[in-house]
Amino acid sequence: MHGLVLALLLLAAWMPAASAAHYVVCTADNPPMSTCNITANPSTYSGFDVELFRSAAQLMGWTESEGGEASNASQPQGGDTFELVCRPFSDVVADLTAPGGTCTLAAAGITISSEREDRGIKFSFPTYHSSLAIMVYAEEKQDTGWFFLRPFDWTVWLAIALTVAAIPAITFVTEFISIEGRIQQRDVVPGMKEASWRSLWTMMLLEPFQVTAISSRVIAVIYGFLATVLVNTYCANLTAALTVSQLATSIQSVEDLRGKAVGTVAVYVSRLAKLGIAAAEIPFDSIESALNVWVPMLQQGTLVATAVDEPIQQFVAALGGCSLRLVDTFAPFDFGAAFRVGTNQSFIDALDDKLLVLQEDGTAEELRTTFIAIPRTECASNVDESTSITFSQVAGLWIVLAAGVGLALIWLLGLRLWQQSSRRHSFKAGVAFRQTVSIYGAQIAAARRDLEAAALEEAGRAGSGLTLDGSGSAPAAGHEAPGSPMARVLPEDQSVAQLLAHVRQLCDRMEAHAETSYMEGGQRIVDERIEEVPELD
């Protein structure tokens, strides 16, 4: 037994140890994703994809070395080595599909595409979410005397002007109808002048809108809120606009490229054609070609824009000067590490796990800031230029104002209906009063005529020649002879004095009722002519 164990130990000692794998990682001079020089030491190679792979390899336990024969990428393990090899970008992609190729994988800002996957190239988890970007050359705008209008779009200025003009008319109508009940022609001009000035002062936050009616106050409060928000927004946007340089360019989005001279690399010509953009192919062998060819063409006006990968555009703009600016991005896509045809999927999965770790711990974002989104603090135009506020961005203020005006009008309508009801009641009381007085007045006049006739008749019988002018007297009221004219005019139990007393009491009640109606309805009952009284229901 002991001999068997000893033999196994000797056999294990004689067996050669498993050699560490060596991987050839191809890259290209494709800044900012990768930068290299064939004649330079690989330790100087850099760029977003290169540094991201180095960080992933460190997590895998690999070490960077120079030289060595490439191993099959099967099961990576700690102790494996890798080396970076710089080649032209087109050779890197071709090597991954060539039978005698030497690249185990490539980290050079290679786009993940279905066309490359159909050729057998495999890709890692996306290392960077990119897109095509539009770069333009734009001189700094010269400030004009109308710079103060820039914070608001013309639609907002138009809305403000219409509001300042409309609010005086609305408040004038609601104020006069609420208080006076009607608008007198002589009050229109001075009232509108005063309301217009107050509307303008309120919009400039110089003075609050002074009104007394509830409906007018509702409108004034909401109008004051709108003015406060607009004034503060204007001041903030104007301050921001003064701190940045404005670039003069007519290109703001991909839609503006149609019919214009646009440059792009060969792989994107057909893609842009599908968007209706007839782009011309421009050379791109290195970042120097972009700086020496693209930028002069943009400066001279031969091209109005270039449409290339967003990381490349940002890198060129950072090196080419403050007049180069990215205005829009479109057609998103992803970059990833590319693997040779036939690479074992477990090898790719192991590297994907480390790439995800680097994204989660913030390493990938730090590299993006270092190599791609390079801050351009020396350029004022690098700060996002202040854009004008459009009406759609502040339309909610006018919606609130319209709702307030509607609420005020509903309140005013309800108040008017209540006042009309109260006034109709007062009119009916006044008409009833006049009708009653007219009836009793007719009775008194008829009684007086009968009394005079009866008195003359009695005086004639007596032969005394008495009249009612003070030289004689008629029979005392209440003592008329039966069957006499006075007895026929008045009821047996009612004298003229009693009738007059009854009229006075009725008048007192009518006056008290009119006064009560005035207090309740808030309307003064004036002495109007009978023909002005509206027809009673």
UniProtKB/TrEMBL annotation:
Keyword Zinc attached: no
InterPro entries, sorted: Ionotropic_Glu_rcpt, Iontro_rcpt_C
Ionotropic glutamate receptor C-terminal domain location: 154-405
SUPFAM superfamilies (alphabetical): Periplasmic binding protein-like II
Keywords noted in UniProt: Glycoprotein, Ion channel, Ion transport, Ligand-gated ion channel, Membrane, Receptor, Signal, Transmembrane, Transmembrane helix, Transport
Transmembrane segments: 154-179, 200-226, 395-418
Location(s), subcellular: Membrane
This protein's name: Ionotropic glutamate receptor C-terminal domain-containing protein
Membrane protein topology class: Multi-pass membrane protein
